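Justification of resources, computational component.

The compute hours requested in this renewal are based largely on the per-chain cost of generating structure records like the one below. Each record pairs the submitted sequence with a full structure-token output. That output is archived, and it is also reused by downstream analysis tasks.
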Amino acid sequence: MKRLRNIVIGATVAALVASACSSDTAKTSTTGGLDGDAGDCITVDMAISPEKLTVLTELANTFNDNKTEIDGKCIFVRPARKASGAAARLLVDSWPDPTNNGPQPVIWSPASNGWAGVVNEQVGSVVAPPGTPFMLTPLVIAMPKPMAEALGYPGKQLGFSDIVDLANTPDGWAAYGHPEWGAFKLGKTNPNFSTSGLNFTIAEYYAATGKTSGLTLEDLQRPNVAEFAGNVEKSVVHYGDTTLTFLNNWYRADQRGNALTYTSAVAVEEKSVIDYNTGNPDGILDPGEVARPPRDPLVAIYPKEGTLFSDNPFIILDEPWVTAEQKAAAKLFQDFVQQPDNQAKVLQFGFRPNNPAVPISDPINAANGVDPTQPQSELEVPDSKVLVGVLDAWAQQRKDAKVLLVLDVSGSMGDSVGSEGKTKLDLAIQAAVNSLDKFKDSDEVGLWIFTTDLGPDATSTYLELVPTAPMSENRDKLKSAIEAQRPLNGTPLYTVTQAAYEAAKAAYDPAKINAVVFLTDGQNDDANPDDDQQQYADMISTLTAGSEGVNSESVRMFTISYGAGADTATLKAIAEATTAAYYDASNPATIDQVFTNVVSNF
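The structure output for this chain reads:
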């Protein structure tokens, strides 16, 4: 939705840099990010893509400790993680609800400058001027080394055309001498949320046209381009809001010895390949966590058709909430991170420095599955109208989904939240209804509710309110059924999870992404605690057995832990058993955003 606004033009502020004051109340967190009140300092809030939280927190700490001033006032830089696509949507909407979405940023640092073009085009004015790159990492196609070697790596150049060939080969990996690997499976993030997904989709369309620059709206509308893109998308196992879902699931599968059957390739940034191969798939080592290299390392395929770089810009926003003083302070921090000593730090985290005075070195090397001499061909970021056109085209050409929504309507969903008299169920209903608009007409979606004592004889634990069918038929039915719900009885978590999974598996469609979205705010409570342990064991056994094997009919269960009382451990176990993802909505006020993130998988 476009908005009209006045762009605040900041006046020039004289910057007097000295070492004098700092906030007494501002404190740094040892777990990443910054905590505390900036006191009387000029506060420079940053919204940054998650992969650079650690390095920018370190640099912000150093900058703040240097007690830099502007006109006698200290500066406090405060980074906070926010996914690139999520921040873009918030900026289009003027960054509402800072309590739950985080403070309105002075500096926005998405993974790529391309997001600025998307925001500006959707807003209708330049609120995100082109930013100064901070550090670089190219998009690659990550593959387990044995699979890449089967395709001719490292002697043969590989790219999108090879993915299309594999996706359209009925024999899958058997055509390359490995029937035990099953079909070719691609992991890709949703381009509305993730920079790797956006860059991969842009590169996909470039590959279809044979161009390396000058992609146009007319190119996107050509039938052969749409066919090429559709053939790439048909091999996708599911989409996602972040590559970490794929990398963590891949790593868990690798530790069990079956990484080669989870997925064949994932579109990620080069930095992620380095993290994975050093035993740190999400790029963050938790306290006590020990890095353990994978059994089957990944290698980075630099597409022969060309690729794009994530340039991690510092975008000083032209927004009404950003003062001239904050802009001047932000510029000082931007200059600080470009200094050679600080640019050298980015290498420690697997990024390429933006400063040419700092040469590329370890860990960007062959031992970690990457090549510092690649890529040989770089693709041009399209203009803003074409970027939005890419997203619109992908929305029609993406793989269809078949999704069962399973909604907890137990009594605890009637608990009040906030100060406006809303219940947890009220917020969940609104979020679920809002999510319906994110499905296209050819997606199939159905609805179950669950609690104890349901049905005519009060013995059922779930009811199918809307049978799974195309959204062209079901959209209004789903909306009405969801809005009609009221909180009822207990929470038969284990039995309903197993039943929903088995129902989705029985209706499996190999041409679609098959999934269950399962939301609950409670623990297993079916009035019979004596059999809980057996029920749990049966449930996990069913989920795990159904997700393993070369030709398994993969149904993924995306779980939402809603409110403070939900059984987080069980919901994580359910998602992991089906190589899906768990989402935390312990703060009920975040449920709308969480639902949006969940639906990004389809």
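Residues 532-547 form the longest helix (16 residues). The first strand starts at residue 26 and ends at 28.
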